[in-house]
Amino acid sequence: MIDYSLFGTYNREAMQLILSKIKDNYFLSVKEKGWEKATIFSNGKGVKLYAHFNKYGECYKIMLAFSPHKQFNNNLHNANYFTYKQAQKQIVKTFEAIGISYELFKEFYISSIEIGINFNVQENAFPILNSALMFGRNYFVTHHKHKHYRFAGDPGKGKYLKTKFYIKSEQRNGECDCNYFELGYCDQNIMRFETKLKRAEKFKFIDFGNLESLYLENSEEILSKQLLREFGKIFFFSVKHIKQNNLTKPQQKKYYQYQVKGFWENLNTRKLNTEKKYFNTEMPKNINLKKELSEIILKHLALKNYVGIPNEIELKSRSKFLAKYLRIYKTEKSISINENELFCLRCTYIGIGKATKFTPCQNQRKRICLITGLDISAQKKGSRFLREKNLKLIKVNSPDLYKPLEKKYLKIENQKESEQRQLYLICKNIRDKDSNARNNRKSFERRNYHKSQLQFSFQF
Question: Which pTM value belongs to this model?
């Protein structure tokens, strides 16, 4: 699910560990566009380090770039199924290879990240690919060399987000000029939808200032929902999908207008939104492509939640009957969705494993903390942040979830305080992260601007 990403740190201890560890396994690489001021180290296997030194030769920042998905496949491809848990483990493994343990993850931030999903379709993938007309208000553009690859920017955050929609099985290996299907990396007609956050700090749906955020209990659900939201912005259009029988006169007129070259490109914003709505709601169709693809992606996201659970259960239980009863068909290239759903039902029946299927409206009444993203549905209505009573339950029932919160939001000198005091300080620091940005500005204005001074308010 997580692909090419860029992580950074300013921590001296972490940078010293990295520079001492890579002496034997990394070599200096050639300069790259956008990284002219950085010293680039590479291991030749898909992992690169961008070290920034000042005029005294001291390193003040290091950026680490790699694809967890490709690293999982020995830097060959990212065409197979790749679960979120596998991504978490691979990130830990890659960081450990350069001398960084999980305890130092809090010193790293996420600069950019790609989240995507591979899914299979039963028909020829090219007509589906070419019917993806727009992403928001931006048109999809086909790569000038690779016809299987289309991309578009986000209308609101075009500088910071890039969307890709392409046929993964048609992607080619540069060395032998064979596609991934011919090389046996994946099945035929495997498609991929992914969104790249080029500047992760511009997005607030997860705390990208801390690498540990990817290891929170609900981080997979947050990223999955974000991926579905981005897919929902795609506008699919194909004249072939329109039912030609029994069209009304207005519908017939639109049907012929749609076939005029440049029809969509010549519309202004207001007319464009009107025409898109008319096509989606008024025109009869043989197939609702967007709905079908969304359902396929949902199934694959649910599938990714459960892959690997059978092995964990078999390790925990030595019962041969149970191991056979919970058997699931899976290979490196493909996984049976029907078998997986059957497995989930069996898990629910005997009360083992996480068998709650992921859906976008999993719990419409569910409320989450604005800062941590944790579930606060048990708190009183109107509560926006994690409170002491809920935090105490997390400490008792989920110590692995409580520890990252304690590290980030509790100062070292306060760790000797009573339990109640520690819980209060953690919750206070969580709330302060939201309010400090506003209060700091107000304090600055009170210090520097007199009440009688003429001021202009540019807030809308």
Answer: 0.64
